[in-house]
Amino acid sequence: MSDSKKIIDELKNKKYDAGFKAEIEEEIFPPGINEEIIRKISAIREEPEWVLNFRLRAYNYWKKLQMPRWAHLEFEDIDFQSIVYYAQPKIEKKGSLDEIDPKIKEIYDRLGVPLDEQKILAGVAVDAVLDSVSVATTFKEELRKLGIIFMPISEAIKQYPDLVKKYMGSVVPYTDNFFAALNSAVFSDGTFVYIPKGVHCPVELSSYFRLNVSEAGQFERTLIIADEGSYVSYLEGCTAPMFDENQLHSGVVELIALKDATIKYSTVQNWYPGDETGKGGIYNMVTKRGICKGDNSKILWTQVETGSAITWKYPSTILKGDNSVSEFYSVAVTNNYQQADTGTKMIHIGKNTRSTIVSKGISLGHSNNSYRGLVEIRKGAENARNFSQCDSLLIGDKCGAHTFPYIDVKNKTAIVEHEATTSKISDEQIFYLRQRGLDTEKAVSLIVNGFTKEVMNKLPMEFAAEAKRLLEITLEGSVG
Amino acid sequence: MENTKRQPLLEIHDLHASIEDKEILKGINLIVYPGEVHAIMGPNGSGKSTLSAVLAGKEDYTVTKGKVFFKGKDLLKMKPEERAREGLFLAFQYPVEIPGVSIMTFLKTVMEEIYKHRGMEPMTAAEFLRYLKEKKELVEFDSKLENRAVNAGFSGGEKKKNEILQMAVINPTLAILDETDSGLDIDALKIVANGVNKMKRDDNAFIVITHYQRLLNYIVPDIVHVLYDGRIVKTGTKELALELEEKGYDWIKKELSTL
Predict the structure, then answer these.
(1) For residue range A154-190, what is the model confidence (pLDDT) as tens digits?
(2) Residue of chain B minimizing CA distance to A456
(3) Chain B interface, mutation test: which of A425, A433, A439, A444, most B Cβ atoms within 10 Å?
(4) Phi and psi (nearest 5°) for B121?
């Protein structure tokens, strides 16, 4: 048997160790979407009128849309009337973290997410979102002393309505696309971050999203505003239990970087990918976009995508300010019957704007992995510069790697570079490493680490170890 | 003669191997004792590289007959990585590139696996660095290369030197050098040979596979074998290598055809 055939056999199954369901009581709305449900969601969250109106406008717009089918993804139509749009753990929410329901704390402990402020040594502040509700936010008080606002968006709507009103929907309007409209209609919780002028946020801010109820969808909204000269690094992690049904996750993330500000946004996405036959798993349909609004601002995206049955996600940046900079570093791994269509858009508007795209796709099993990206240089973007590199690694011969790069240049001074490679782990490489004493699994993992190193190095220290471990689990076989 | 009392390191008995139903090895017999350096010479297509690949466990080849014992254990039953961890090393004729993985990371990972196999605690980062430095000096390895990805963009000579560094770090009991001299200039050749000579001990052995006698000026073999058409047809001392150099392989071919 050749080595590559062995690899396929050994790696066909992967473990998903975040796949437990916690037994906690939840208040669950009946499935389906209609005006009444939206009013109920708004009412239970005690939202002001303008938020309800925002939701209803989005809903009425969404009703007229068809689900987009242009991505290189195959899946059955989603029945939006069978989804539960609101599920809330039945807990008393108190001010102090010591009073968090122990059952909730246990969920996050099992996931390795510390909600205990005394135990947090790594310097990460966490906002934990379970199904539709934010259940705990750590470090809130310490951050407030610096003027940093880090809280669930539901609370921010009440406490900082002017900020939320000004920026929510300003980067991703509900008219943007089908899933953004749906999210705007039914969005549950999510994280709100505001970094005041000149403040360098001293800790990594982190949201941890968890789906627990089987029929529930998750529709969080994240809004991050970095005021002039400020800096923030934000981490996002996600998991869900293993269910046979497909679940929908449709988030919206908006980043606003004002003059001289930097936002670093890192994602480690580990939603349940379905079993080895392709049954179950999360449909991850997410709209993430940032705007470099002010001059010299920076938005840096880093993502490690190992989970989800379907990934449809293009974290993008509008480079509006002069001299603004954006980077997109991505690793997407698909195994079994997973499908990913992911990439980025870099829209250059300002002068001397620069963007870098480094995308690494790894396909195993029967999976399909596509990079889709747009580099757009608008008319006024003098001396804009882009460098894109898309590398694909295939493991086995039943998977696919696809690249769809779009380039649209309207200014002659622009320099746009695109490099792409596709490679396979060869039998010769595996044999070479085995001859040095590594087993096949370790050999594959070493090659994959080498392939993804450039992206992994961009992750904050706290996240890099977790991401590496996830990558290893994804590659791990069910070797007996 | 003292050697015969010791256990052989490698015993090959009547080894037959084929690839895609074509028989390449047609009954190899070879015994290697600790402390010995064997040279295997032969014309192109005689089965030299097949022999090294079969010993290392490359699965493209099927062993159809024969037995191989390594340190008394049935080698053919072991996976390639088990053979390596037991102390069998192959310096490849064409080392492959592993992009993005530095030589340092690679060797550290390899040593962790070997130590695990021996039931030993892995070296700490500092211990490993010291160990690597020592081995680099032993084989005169260019200090800048170790931070580069394994073989990626290396010249032919750099690739071979990297094989020798790996051999020094792994410190095998039996090292097979598969035409390590091919494509090397005289300076690189000396570095490779010096590496082998410095590593030579009473408890390890080398099999040097080569087409030309040139390398054997620097690595002096105890025993020279001539491989032809899948069999060892002649065995002698280092003088045999010189004779081959002088007369070429046709001499062997003629001698065999008259038999």
Answers:
(1) 889 999 999 999 999 999 999 999 999 999 999 987 8
(2) B100
(3) A433
(4) -65, 140
